[in-house]
């Protein structure tokens, strides 16, 4: 590559997030747990919960970490943050019953993932046509400090990859 190649080469910028950042998992309307129809998520029985009413079907890792669990059905995955916090992303309500129909996994269990990296592609229309909701939950299953709550930004429209914690 010559000097002119460097000058005229189209450069793309790659966003790099810190290990403490938590991102919106999709282009969506972010909603509180109280706005989720399923009681397990609404009552935060698995941990602090927020929801994302999906606008499209690309679901990304909310954080840098290890993809500890990726269900074969593609409906859910868990990421362990560098500080030890465990997060679960659950796509839809009762979508496990679809046995993977409408879901395509884009990563592998056990791999290290970056915040904003696509993990699952979901066909929202197929899921809804099958009679299931596509609201996607982000659950803090294992906070570093027992009982600690993450300060999320105000609910409303978010963009996939947007930082959603108050700093």
What does this structure look like?
The protein is mostly beta strands and about 170 residues long. It has a single domain (about 20-160), classed as Glucose Permease (Domain IIA) (Distorted Sandwich), CATH 2.70.70.10. Helix content is about 10%, strand content about 30%. It contains 3 helices and 11 strands; from the N terminus they run αβαββββββββαββ. The strands form 2 sheets. The chain has an 8-stranded antiparallel sheet, with no helix packed on it. A 3-stranded antiparallel sheet has the order 3-9-7, with no helix packed on it. A hairpin with a 5-residue loop joins strand 4 (about 65-70) and strand 5.
**CATH architecture group name:** Distorted Sandwich
Gyration radius (Cα, Å) is 17 Å
Q: Give the topology string: H per helix, E per strand.
A: HEHEEEEEEEEHEE
Strand count, sense and closure of the main sheet?
8 strands, antiparallel
How many β strands by DSSP? 11
- Shape category: globular
What descriptors fit this protein?
167 residues; mainly beta; Glucose Permease (Domain IIA); eight-stranded antiparallel β-sheet; three-stranded antiparallel β-sheet; 11 strands; 10% helix; globular; disordered N terminus; PTS_EIIA_component
Summarize the structure.
By secondary structure, the chain is mostly beta strands. 10% of the residues lie in helices and 32% in strands. InterPro entries: Dup_hybrid_motif, PTS_EIIA_1_perm, PTS_EIIA_component.
């Amino acid at each position: 590559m010559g000097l002119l190649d460097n000058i005229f080469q189209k450069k793309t910028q790659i966003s790099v997030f810190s290990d403490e950042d938590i991102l919106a998992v999709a282009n969506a309307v972010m909603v509180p747990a109280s706005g989720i129809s399923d009681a397990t998520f609404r009552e935060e029985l698995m941990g602090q919960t927020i929801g994302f009413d999906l606008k499209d079907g690309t679901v990304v890792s909310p954080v840098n970490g290890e993809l500890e669990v990726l269900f074969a059905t593609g409906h859910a995955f868990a990421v362990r943050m560098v500080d030890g916090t465990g997060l679960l992303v659950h796509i839809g309500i009762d979508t496990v019953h679809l046995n993977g129909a409408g879901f395509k996994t884009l990563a592998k269990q056990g791999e290290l993932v970056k915040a904003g990296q696509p993990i699952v592609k979901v066909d929202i229309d197929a899921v809804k046509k099958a009679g299931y909701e596509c609201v996607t939950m982000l659950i803090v299953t294992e906070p570093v400090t027992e009982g600690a709550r993450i300060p999320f930004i105000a609910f409303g429209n978010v963009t996939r990859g947007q930082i959603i914690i108050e700093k």
